[in-house]
Amino acid sequence: MMFDILAQNPNLAVILAATLLPLAAFVVVLLFTRSRPKLSAGLSIGAMGGSLLCALFLLIRHPSMDVPLQYAGRWLISGKINIPVGFLLDPVSILMLFIVAAISFLVQVYSLGYMAGDPGFSRYFAFLSLFGWAMESLAVSPNLLQLYIFWEIVGLSSYLLIGFWYQKFSASQAGKKAFVMTRLGDIGFFLGILLLLFHTGRLDIATLAAASTGMSPSMTTLAILLIFGGIIGKSAQFPLMTWLPDAMEGPTPVSALLHSATMVAAGVFLFVRIFPFFSTSQSAMTVCLAVGTVSMLLSATMAMVSRDIKQVWAFSSISQLGFMIMGLGAGSRFAGMFHLTTHAGFKALLFLCSGVFIHHFGTNDIETLGRSGCRRQVIPMVCLVIAAAALSGVPPFSGFFSKESILSALAGLENPFWLVAGFLGAFLTAYYAFRLVFLLLFPPGGMDSNHEPAHRNWAMAAPLLILAFVSVVLGFFGKDLMQFLGSSGAGGALHKEAHRAWLTVIALAMPASGIVLAWFEFGRKSSDRKGFVERIPSLADFFSQRWYLDKFYAALVRRVVDGGLSALCAGNDRKVIDESIDTFSRSVIGAGRRVSMWHVGRLQQKLFVMFAVVMALVIYFGFNFG
Amino acid sequence: MPEHFANLPFLSVILGCCIAGVICILAIPEERHTAIKWTAAVFSGLTLLISAYLFIVYDRSLTGFQLVEKHSWVPRLGISYFVGVDGFSLPNLLLTGIVFFTGVLTMWELKTRVKEFFALYFVLVTGVFGLFMSLDLFFIFLWFDVSLFPMYLLIAIWGTTRKEYAAMKLTLYLLAGSALILPAILYLSATSGLGTFDLVALMHPGTFTPFQQKVAFALLFVGFGILAAVWPFHTWSPVGHVAAPHGVSMLHAGVLMKIGAFGILRVAIFLCPEGWRFFAPYMAFLATVGIVYGVLAGLRQTDLKYVIGYSSVSHMGIVCLGLSTMTVGGLNGAVFQMFAHGIMTALFFSSVGYIYDRTHTKEIAQLGGLSKTIPVASAFFITAALASMGLPLLAPFWGELLVFISTFSVYPVRAVFAIAALVVSALFMLRVIQKTCYGPEKPQYEGLQDVPFRLAIPRIVLLAFVVLLGLFPSLLLNVIETASVPFMNGHLL
Amino acid sequence: MIVPFSHVMILSGVVFVIGMFALLARRNLIMMLLGVEIMLNAAAIAFVGAALRWQDMEGHSIVLFIIAVAATEVSIGLAMIVRAHRRTGSVDPEIISLESKKEE
User: Which residues pair with B85 in a beta bridge?
Assistant: First the structure.
């Protein structure tokens, strides 16, 4: 019977295969092939490859579907609570599915080289498969609750992969921090879901998108802001942003896959997913816009002073995610999703290129890398420059197009402040990206002379080339993507921005000036390799301390949670509840002892009393009844 | 149910297995440890098989009690041997079977006073099984006390940290509970005017006036609530968890605390719905405080078993919160959470037991790097910790989800606090994982033997249930529904 | 000559009071034990007198019991006193009980 259903619905069969293959790989690798690393990697990559093919099939086939496909089963029913399970295939979800599958596949191939010889090789691939399954299922979830479930599983795989080298204290610490901080956001998300469920009784993404929910405006705003809390946590936005830089403790391919391209984009994806619902409340959208802007600028300043190559890209991820949220907050669903797509490509590329250097030279420090001679490694260096150009928004690379669509969405707003902030962000982005590039190419103090022959690892090089190619050409498919996304009936809210010539000019001028400034300070021969920020030590310190956000959270946990509430509760248990119970029982024992004193000693007095009483009784009864 | 089995008194057979187990163990000579352990394993396995069989053949289309047996015992006082199961008690029977069997296997390496240990263990479980299946108030009280007394000896003789203090504290607390339950039961039986202890007869609406229900409910809630570790009567439970040997901790946290919650449901809520309605907001308040308080207090603990003990306090708070919502979803969630917490916490203690037996310490500060030294054992431990954090697709998630959804519609503010506790619970579980399993390998633990398959069996069984119910919660929920839906329809909705 | 019953009872009462005085007033356990013995004997005298008065042999049989009880009581009592004396070096009941409290 099962097979009949599948045979009639090839799409269902394909999507089932796409999501379940990685899960199967996870289970098999973890349970059976842990001691055989080659086989584990083969299984995992094979499963992901199959999943990628399925996603590709859906992507190609999709334009022929006029309505989103939806399959629903039932997970459980309890009283009035009905929790369905199923798939929703519409352009956004298929696109996301494809992005996840593609980058997962490339990163897994890359990991063959990067993780070779690691004692936890099998475990690594198992966790990657777990992530692949959870993230793909998240992308095609038809309702918010199912999305939340996989949202948490994705968080779990992120935790496991950040702390992959668990013997390192900083790694396990970073994993814990990532999980707890995203959990904090997830609480908001969960409460938002409960609020929606309570007021409207349904959580289907398709219907949530289509119609107004019948909630009062203030309730709608509250629900949106709560759900946005989840987005803040997952996409590392202000104020829950500090876990992402620490998450770079994980292996570099993991950073490429989870902490830049796909998992952290899940927050933005959720925004895109229920964009029509979000756009019902203008005040909530403004909050989103503000949070995106603050995160974008804040993390750009942090990226300007960091010396750790992965940290720079991590801050840049936060910043770009902030950019996407700005675009969405400005009301353009397409701009956000477009930038998500291009960003997934070039940011993964940036990380993978950096991974080659880190793998080869064994350090994260930019200047040391530059001095060790990473520009001699031609393929990764060229790819890195391409990706950095895409990140900065240099035409004709993909980032230019997507960034421009965000800027034009911002230009459509009445308040020019957001547009100015966007331009400033574009400028800073180009500046810190090319600061890094120039530091790598022209390191201060020149290169070390010992020339190490770089042996080329094709498992690592091939994904770079593919991604570089994508970063070059993807931008030209913006129109097609818009059509693709627009083809879904649920979309609707596409903005038709008037194309403004002055906007393009400024959008070109900003990255150009950023790159020029970076060249002036870091590139040219006579420069002293000092950024304009570093000339003001207090400011540089402020930026590199990450605006003291980390210190604030650490103090918060130590003082308020550990030292305050927890101490209060534990102390109350010990000193109030237990102590009062123990005092009570001690006093009972004490009273018993005191009473027992009467039983000891004074034998003769007691005997005298006894005789006296007997006498008295005898006399009494003798007189009364005698 | 297949025809030829229909007339077998399965519930009595379960009790019979336990009692036969005690007798057989007592008959085996003291020094034949292996024979005693095998006997214990066989009889506990039998109870598990029977309860699993009952779970499978239970007729989900019927409501009310099934497999009912009733024999008059002291007719003059209206006491009868009256057993039966419904959707509320059946999951608990299965849970008891699972924890019982895995607990016996967890204690496989016991070397001191083996015979006495397993005999007392069986007596304890007899009481638990009896309580879950009894439908007679007198027997409920009797089984309640039967399950208390072996606990004292099990902790005081085989325990570890501050065992005399813990055993004494636990026994006194629980006896205080039973001292509240007995008058309540007598009061109910006397004021009903029916001259019976029969629960089903007493359940008829209109048997008790609202005032009587309130009085009895308050007494029963506190009495059973002590056993369910309702805040502020919870402090016996972490202390007891810590002192007890692992197999006993498993029973204690996995099953014994459920007796309290089940007693609240079966006796207090069934007989006194008016009292329930009156006291539900207060119950919800205590439960919420317990949820938040448990995780916060757990954050500071330095002993592995204290940590689990406090997380149990928090989880039992969720059960109580579910019971206080007066909705079908809340009852379902509460009973589901009882089961899920039972297997999860049993897995926890079973894993900690293995770690303790090898490293001889429960101090978190002294552990570390276990994922490197004993990867499989620590994988069990980590999974249990993740389940305890309420991670989706593991069993406890569904219980919490149902309870929170129901609570949010009734007591939104309390629900917000209870949900916020999830963050702290994640923080404290991850800290424990980090300090015990992660970090560099410690030299003193180098070369420890990882779990051999034989000893892994109990953990595998428990883990399998945690995952299975995490993926397919309806397996359990559709049984619970056969009781919760008619109950709520009959009484309140 | 037949002694009147009332004389026997008076004798019994006097002996009993003597025993009681020994029990209540003396600060020596041995003397107190003797007091108990004397009181028992007073009771025995009363029983004998009563047996004669009502011509009933049960009184005599109870006297035999009393003699047996008195003998065992003396032996056990003396043994305990010796033990207490060894532990505390005294036969004063107050001192003994104080000493034994200290040892707790």
Answer: B66
The chains in contact with chain C, meaning 3 or more Cβ pairs closer than 8 Å, are: A
Of B449, B236, B285, B251, residue with least CA distance to A573: B236
Cα separation, A326 vs C97, in Å, equals: 89
Torsion of CA A578, A579, A580, A585, to 10 degrees: 90
In this structure, how many other beta carbons lie within 10 angstroms of the beta carbon of residue B41? 17
Measure A191 CA to nearest chain B CA, in Å: 7
Chain A hits for B420, Cβ within 8 Å:
187
- Which residue blocks in A373-500 are alpha helix, DSSP H? 378-392, 398-411, 416-441, 458-473, 478-486
- Residues 6 or more apart whose CB falls under 8 angstroms from that of B346 comprise B98, B99, B102, B103, B250, B253, B254, B462
- B372/A81 CB distance under 8 A: no
DSSP H or E segment with residue A89: strand A81-89
- Per CB-CB distance under 8 Å, the chain A contacts of C93 are 601, 603-604
> DSSP letters along A160-211, please?
HHHTSSTTSHHHHHHHHHHHHHHHHHHHHHHHHHHHHHHHHS--BHHHHHHS
Which stretch of DSSP H or E encloses residue B83? Answer: strand B79-85
Cis peptide before A396 (omega within 30 of 0): yes
Q: Three-state SS across chain B?
A: CCHHHCCCCHHHHHHHHHHHHHHHHHHCCCCCHHHHHHHHHHHHHHHHHHHHHHHHHCCCCCCCCEEEEEEEEEHHHCEEEEEEECCCHHHHHHHHHHHHHHHHHHHHHCCCCHHHHHHHHHHHHHHHHHHHHECEHHHHHHHHHHHHHHHHHHHHHHCCCCHHHHHHHHHHHHHHHHHHHHHHHHHHHHHHCCCCCEHHHHCCCCCCCHHHHHHHHHHHHHHHHHHCCCCCCCCHHHHHHHHCCHHHHHHHHHHHHHHHHHHHHHHHHHHCHHHHHHHHHHHHHHHHHHHHHHHHHHCCCCEHHHHHHHHHHHHHHHHHHHHCCCCHHHHHHHHHHHHHHHHHHHHHHHHHHHHHHHHCCCEHHHCCCHHHHCHHHHHHHHHHHHHHCCCCCCHHHHHHHHHHHHHHHHCHHHHHHHHHHHHHHHHHHHHHHHHHCCCCCCHHHCCCCCCCHHHHHHHHHHHHHHHHHHHCCHHHHHHHHHHHHHHHHHHCC
Q: Flag whether the ipTM exceeds 0.85.
A: yes
Q: Which residues of chain B have pLDDT under 70?
A: 1-7, 491-493
Rounded distance between C-alpha atoms, residue A213 and residue A490, angstroms: 15
| pTM of the predicted model as reported, rounded to 2 decimal places | 0.86
- How many whole angstroms separate alpha carbon B310 and alpha carbon B129? 25
Cα angle, residue C75 at apex, residues C72 and C80 outer, rounded to 5°: 120
Give CA–CA dist A90/B475, Å, rounded. Answer: 32
A191 near B CB under 8 A: yes
Contacts of A173 in chain B (CB under 8 A): 434
Name the 3-class secondary structure at B45.
Answer: helix
Tokens representing residue A313 in the block: 């890209």
Asked if B touches C (at least 3 Cβ pairs < 8 angstroms), the answer reads no
The torsion angles phi and psi of A36, rounded to 5 degrees, stand at: -125, 85
Helix (H) or strand (E) holding A72: strand A69-78
Going from the first residue of chain A to its last (626 residues), give the mean pLDDT of each consecutive group of 10, the final group possibly shorter: 70 85 91 86 91 89 70 74 82 88 91 86 91 91 89 92 88 90 91 87 76 75 90 88 88 88 89 86 89 90 87 91 89 86 89 88 83 80 89 85 86 84 90 88 72 69 87 81 62 47 83 86 76 79 81 85 83 84 89 79 80 90 78
Is residue A471 a contact partner of residue A398, using CB atoms and an 8 Å limit?
yes
